[in-house]
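Posting for a labmate who doesn't have an account.
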Amino acid sequence: MVKYLTTLLALLLTLPVLAAEIQVSSDRDPVGLNESFQLIYQSADEVDGEPDFSVLEDQLDIISRSQSNNVSIINGSLSRSQRWTVTVMARQAGTLQLPPVPFGDDRSAALTIQVNASSKITTRGNDFHTRVRLSSETPLVQQQLIVTQQVFSPFNLSNYALGDLEFSGVDVVVEPLGDPKQYRTRIDDTAYIVVEKRFAVFPQQSGELILQPALAEGRTGARGGSLFDPFGSRGQILRARSERKRIRVQPLPGGVNLSPWLPARSLELVEQWPQDPPRFVVGEPLTRTLSIKAEGLTAAQLPELQAASSDGLKQYPDQPLLENIRDDNGITGYRVEKTALIPTRPGSITLPEIEVAWWNTQTGQREISRVARRTVEVLPAANAPVEPVQPAIPAPVAPETGQQNTDPGTPEAPEIIAAQDQSYWLWIAAFTSLGWLATTVSWWAFSRRQGTESAENRSDQAKDSRRVFNDLIKACSDGDARRVREHLLKWGKAEFAEQASTGLSQLATHLPTQLVDQLRQLDAGLYAPGGAQVNLQQLAESLKQFDRSRRTQRDAGKPTLIEPLYNPLGSD
């Protein structure tokens, strides 16, 4: 016993201690050499000790630091997060590899920051002013143009406002790139507070595009508050306007045949399968995922990717997923299409090549992103019917006789042998027919009995499913999210008994995108800190609509179960 306890204690002492995960990010990237920016360290775990930011001082000047704690209680669960904000300024231009910051025995992630050399800015003395910068003055039609609006103030501001950008001459689509950022810089030995906001602008026609002067307004803080104005809100009001900008929007390059027209910095076309290489079986659905990632285009500009139909293959496309990711460099558009492919015959099937032609705005050339043609071998279904093998009838053999008839002129011998052979094979055929008849009758009786039992089982399963479904809808009406989740699992097991759903991730494989998203929100609202609460009434309506569709398909004799087209919810 003592030996056992000693061994157990040694094992416990050698178990590794889980380190806290500390994430790090920057409020801006890239940054200017003389501009301040913020490094943000955040952890949802308890860190081992206080941070030691001195490891950053070889590359950065630390201006200030602060710490905040956030505590939230969701459905009785307590969650805590810690945040450290460090305001810094780079000591040199270039790509800085910031090392991990120690928090006791814990370590943060490393971070890479791009620091650009400061550009010379002509100012009108140490005054409050604003300006607008353009990523290009000659963009192509529908090419992304980054417009940066900046306000420079040598005074501390208690408030500021940036006027809207006004364009004329050409129709444009304007997309803001996040919230305004604030930092410090130094120009001609003068320190400035800079407020910066960026926009992605897409001109829709060629011609001259005019950006009208933009108004910026700021209010300086009073030197000291009074009894009636303790926060100095009566400080001086400052106003400034930027210069008018003229932009020459270029038409499509001559001789270039691109439809649709896709001017982008980069464009990637990717094909994905549940397994690599994909395995095709007759009647079994397989999900094919095609996705486009385009830097400098919105998701709405990206084309459909549905491939041409192939002989021996049925296709069931899902609704595409469209998403725009915004950062300081502009918009990156994503389009993801999922299609269920169901082979209808064994043998070779060819999936045709898919191409997307686009214009590279970096090189000024037409390029093509493609998914290569693929030839696959489709296996027969595991339960494919097998052709019954007919019993072989042996060739007739003449019965042996003790004497041979050597007289060719005697006709009686062959007639007697033929009659005997005919009678013999008639009896064989009769016995064989009786055997097949008995087998057929037995098989029919067994099938009928099995069919009756199967029908009864399906009827019982349907009753259980309806009862649990009604309980599920009532739980939604009562607004009880935990009870809704319990009844969802029960309904999934009753409705899809052959798959025996044991969690929401398995249940999600049978449901459309809208329901999957709502189930994900339900789990996030119950368990994830800060998770959004799902609208249970909308969930109930979505469940009713799916139930009606499923019953309609079942009554029409159509298959209702295909390969999951959507991302699972994750482990339950």
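Reply:
Got it, the structure tokens are right above this. The radius of gyration is 38 Å.
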